Amino acid sequence: MEKVMKKSLLFLSENAFFTKIAKKYGLQYGASRFVAGETIHHATKVIKSINEKGFKVTIDHLGEFVEDRLEADENADECIVAIKEIASKELDSQVSLKLTSIGLDISEKVALDNMNRIMKVAEEYKVFVTIDMESYSRCHSTIELYKKLKSRYENIGTVIQAYLHRSESDIVELNSLSPNLRLVKGAYKESHYVAFPKKKDVDDNFQKIICMHLLNGNFTAIASHDDRIIDFTKTFVQNNNIPKEQFEFQMLYGICKERQQQLLEEGYQVRVYLPYGKDWYGYLMRRMAERPANVQFVLKGMFK
User: Fold this and answer.
1) What is the pLDDT of residues 69-101, one digit of tens each?
2) Is 113 a catalytic residue?
3) Catalytic annotation present for 132
4) What's the DSSP call for residue 101?
């Protein structure tokens, strides 16, 4: 039953029709548990409250399935506004973004042009930017654009998904760039030809790329709520004398708050992934698919 639910939710998360319908109704139906608000002004208030508790933040202006150049440019403008807001309010926050939100599905040139606009401002205001990884069909383009941008800007990172067969080779290929990478399991529905279908294989590969990237001496963000992955990382860094400044744990806003607090109290760096914006639908569907308990939280929010 859980597998059927997960497949259904992932299908809904990638359905352009339902995404467009959901945009019309704003932030509701329980999504507020996982999303900071609709605007950067809503988000900065939440960032400040999170920072005051000792956590770092990365914000993501939600958006997917953008095929209109004007909308892509507007999303890039929103990222620039967010960067300036972070700097002006002296918040401990980075920015995460999806290339499809700024034009990748239109062309790589559109996405690269918008990324250069964003990165020039980010470099000026000293704000770090992470390019989120999306579905496998966009993986190669994302890696290639990241390499181009990394040759020009230092304050940029990207994401590697452990469930993909190619992830180990991507870690090897990117190592020469001394990349700052966020390592995740992956949350898109993919064919077994490109992704590990079994959870154990995904977990094993996740542990492998964590070890590889840390031993390469690069900054590593371990983005997971899985206690086994977290405990594995803690043991590995202790056994290999890896300083706490070289890595951080990242967790989603609204999920596993007690675990986040525990890690912080143990002296680890913890960064909260904080999405905001009207286009919350796809994000919410994937969060529910990742963890069945999230469905209960959302249903409670709907009835309230």
Assistant:
1) 999 999 999 999 999 999 999 999 999 999 999
2) no
3) yes
4) G
